[in-house]
Design goal:
Blueprint: E1 2-5, E2 8-11, E3 17-23, H1 30-43, E4 47-52, H2 55-58, H3 73-80, H4 84-97, E5 100-105, H5 108-114, E6 121-123, H6 131-138, E7 144-147, H7 153-164, E8 170-175, H8 190-197, E9 201-207, H9 213-221, E10 225-229, H10 247-262, H11 272-281, E11 284-287, E12 302-305, H12 316-319
Parallel strand pairs: 3-4, 3-10, 4-5, 6-7, 7-8, 8-9, 9-10
Antiparallel strand pairs: 1-2, 11-12
Helix pairs in contact: 1-4, 1-10, 6-7, 9-10
InterPro entries: AFP_Neu5c_C_sf, Aldolase_TIM, PseI-like, PseI/NeuA/B-like_N, SAF, SAF_AFP_Neu5Ac, SAF_PseI/NeuA/NeuB
GO molecular function, one term: N-acylneuraminate-9-phosphate synthase activity
Domain AFP-like: 284-341
Amino acid sequence: MHIKIQNSLIGYHNPVFIIAEGCDNHLGNIATAKEMIREAKRAGADAIKFQHHLPDEEMLPDTPMSDNFQEPLYEFLKKYALTLEQHRELKSYCDEVGILYMCTPFSLKAAQEINSLVPAFKIGSGEMTDIPSLVRIGQMSKPMIVSTGMCTLEEIDRTYNALANRDVPLVLMNCLSEYPPVYEDLNLGVITEMIKRYPKAVIGHSDHTPDLYTCFAATALGARVLEKHVILDKSQPGPDQSVSIEFDELAKLVEGVRKIEVSLGTEKRVQSKEKSIRTWAFRSIVSLRPIAAGEVIQQDDIWSKRPGTGIPAHQMDNVIGKKVIKDIPANTLISWADLDE
């Protein structure tokens, strides 16, 4: 199973697709957003993602506050949300820098406005159960990456069926909507359950921890898309500050994921670089005392030592009881030529 987002193939035989989630950590400053784009490219991310908010389309003004906000979200977005013209400018700048521009629309109208700018739609967890909007967005004939925080498997089933049955190229992101999360709540093993449960989707992981460890674990468990919040300076206040990493950390994340993904083969064989090591590291049968010609070898006469160039240690039972046909000094490798057939 794989999907294509612009020039990137995403799936179980392809590199992990790494998204730097710029969210609203630019605080509405276009110069800051452009610096984030440059830093994401330097770190090796495949894409940087921003958010398109039309506050009056996505929420009522008196929507309850989340614990990770210090002011009502509606008011925050009214102050800091990027305009459509700014998104166009950032898309153009991403093209210039050479990194994929992505964007999360938080309403159907927002998706319609950015449709010409994005190769795929990223859907946040809060919109995961909004089937009418998701179906309409799916009709725009682009891949959809849908986060699943706060949701039950049955709710994910409903969204999966609504989109997969309409042949929407789909990525489902394992996600926990805690900011930051309690590690015991993460349940990363759900990734493997989702891979089995949703065969028409690629499974990824959207991570809200303040470090890198669970992204590495998600990669090892089979996630083929990773999304991580990024910020230029973690001392900067904002709603996503506590779940964001700086760009030097993003570079370490990319480096680690690339090393992990190439290490996940399933073939157990002797590798070429191991072959020379086998010759000295494995053990062979050696004499523990001088053994004269004509003697019959007993267990107390022999044991195993390095190197592995003589009779292998696992054949010790075949050596015991053999007659020696020439003198063998102590502490010497025994060969079949020393023994009576």
